[in-house]
Amino acid sequence: MKPTSILGRYVNRQLIWNFLAVLLMILGVIFLFEMVERIRRMSNVPEFGLLFAFQMAIARLPKTGEQVFPFVMMVAAMITFWRLGKTSEYVVMRAAGVSVWNFLVPICFATAIVGIINVMAVNPLAAELYGMYETLERRMDTKDPHAMMYSEQGLWIREALDDEKTMVMHAQKLQHENDGLLLRGLSIIELDNKARPLRQIEAFAGVLSEGFFSLKDVKIYRAGNPVKKLSEMNYKTILDVDKIEESFAEPEAISFWSLPAVIHFYDKSGFAVQRHEMRFWSLVISPLFLVTMVLVAAVFALRPSHRRGGIMFLIVGGIIAGFSTYFMSQLVYAMGVSGGLPVWLAVIAPTIIAGSIATSILLQIEGE
User: Fold this and answer.
1) I want to staple 340 with a disulfide (CB 3.0 to 4.6 A). Which of 32, 270, 273, 335 is the partner?
2) What Å distances lie between residue 156 and 38, 106, 249, CA to CA?
3) How many Å apart are CA 197 and CA 187, to the nearest integer?
């Protein structure tokens, strides 16, 4: 059965509608819990109101939704298969000579298309919103006097020097060497508490040492004063290499299209790139993982009738299989991030294992 055939379009239409319905329902529940949690956290912060809580809940929603995306697809497939079996449509298809695999081809094709759209179109939007969430979260975190962010344009750092002055630094290139950090093309702008520039410091290079930046070939610009040139200058800071590395943007806050440039920048600078590589390749393989979840759903729901254990077998078996597959993928993912497994193996192993098991069971069902 081809995906473009009348029967293929009919089955895919049911799958897509069930997928959207389950997705909206789950996202609605997640949003309500997020709103309650944000309102509770901001109950003692009168500066932030209900609108701020709404913005934080909306900004975090895509990241949480992305974690349950495979379950949504699996539940949608189970509902689709169950309805086709309940109305005897699947029995009619089998009687007409449609095998299990012919039936699954258009469904797997539609699932892969949904996964590709999620990676290429939805993920960039979700990453942008999650980056917004991190910014909103930092505004509430009064215990952290500075905030940092990274883009493929280089390294950006913001640090509160005191209650009246803030520093924003940009480095075009950086290199992690032993216990130090070499930065090139530095530009430092000091702002007052009303975000008005006080002075700008530009340096050809600098080294982050304990408690200060050692700047070379420095130029200092201040409004109404001539440019001041220095061969060397020590700029006081509370930052260190660990704080900079820990405060890089989370992989979830970087879109699929920007991840290759970010990975190249980190790798070239000498920082660990396992987390970002795992994130990138997991997004690449995610359409196939969704197809695997559909195959797992077919094991429990794609039957001519549901006399074998009834609907309880469908629900309990599907939930156990789904959580087992997800737990295995997260366990292997953690091993890949820690370096215990090669990145390519950690990314593809859960899909291959779960897909092989589901395929073997479906072959047995087809032979019955």
Assistant:
1) 335
2) 28, 47, 11
3) 13
Task: Choose among 100, 18, 127: nearest CA to 303.
Answer: 100
Here the tokens at position 113 are 């298309």
pLDDT band at 145 (very low <50, low <70, confident <90, very high): very low
Say whether both 130 and 274 belong to one domain: yes
CA distance 242 to 79: 48
- Both 110 and 197 in one domain: the answer is no
pLDDT of residue 318: 77
- Under DSSP, is residue 96 helix (H, G, I), strand (E, B) or coil? coil
Distance CA 313, CA 208 (A): 61
Q: What angle do CA 359, 92, 81 make, to 5 degrees?
A: 45
What DSSP element (H or E) covers 173?
strand 165-177
Cβ atoms of residues 337 and 278 within 8 Å? yes
Do β-strands 228-236 and 146-151 pair in parallel, antiparallel, or remain unpaired? unpaired
Hey, what amino acid is at 160? A
CB-based contact 263:202 (threshold 8 Å): no
* Closest by Cα among 130, 120, 121, 111 to 70: 111
**Nearest-angstrom CA–CA distance, 148 and 330:** 28
Backbone angles phi, psi at 304, to 5 degrees: -60, -35
Residues 96, 1 contacting (CB under 8 angstroms) = no
Helix/strand/coil for 141: coil
Q: Are residues 59 and 184 in the same domain?
A: no
219-228, 269-278, 338-347: lowest mean pLDDT where?
A: 269-278
Number of domains present in the structure of the chain: 2
| 3-class secondary structure, 148 | strand
Phi, psi (rounded to 5 degrees) for 42: -95, 10
pTM of this structure: 0.73
- Reference 155, options 85, 244, 94, 238; nearest CA is 244
Tokens of 213: 């930046």
The verdict on 120 and 184 lying in the same domain is no
